[in-house]
Amino acid sequence: MKVAGLGFKRDVTLASLREALLAVGGPEGLAAMATVSDKADAEALKQLARECGVPIRAVPAEVLARVDTPTQSKLIAEKFGTGSVAEAAALAAAGPRARLIATRVVSQDRTATAAIAEGDGP
């Protein structure tokens, strides 16, 4: 199963999320999108998930904090305990033996990030 992990600022636009997803490989073959639980109800994310025809998987922040990521953002590490919300969410939602197939990509306006992981599912 392929899962796109998305990290974003509260005021993110659908266009920025879409741009990040396309830059990381696009929606083809995705089974779900994932992000930190407290942002899973963001309107732009819900619109993108509908557009791609996939569900959103909400990942608790304490789960993200236990995921090691190849990309390291000091700000994100301080706030979430992991180096990349997008990478950690993708890995967590794709299952226990998941691997990243696309590391974090950042939108041009720097409000959205996306990564893709593949795994056996939760």
UniProtKB/TrEMBL annotation:
Pfam families: CbiG_C. Residues 3-117 form the CobE/GbiG C-terminal domain. Keywords: Hydrolase. GO terms for biological process: cobalamin biosynthetic process. InterPro entries: CbiG_hydrolase (IPR052553), CobE/GbiG_C (IPR002750), CobE/GbiG_C_sf (IPR036518). GO terms for molecular function: hydrolase activity. It comes from the Bacteria. Gene3D superfamilies: CobE/GbiG C-terminal domain. This is Cobalt-precorrin 5A hydrolase. It comes from Bradyrhizobium sacchari.
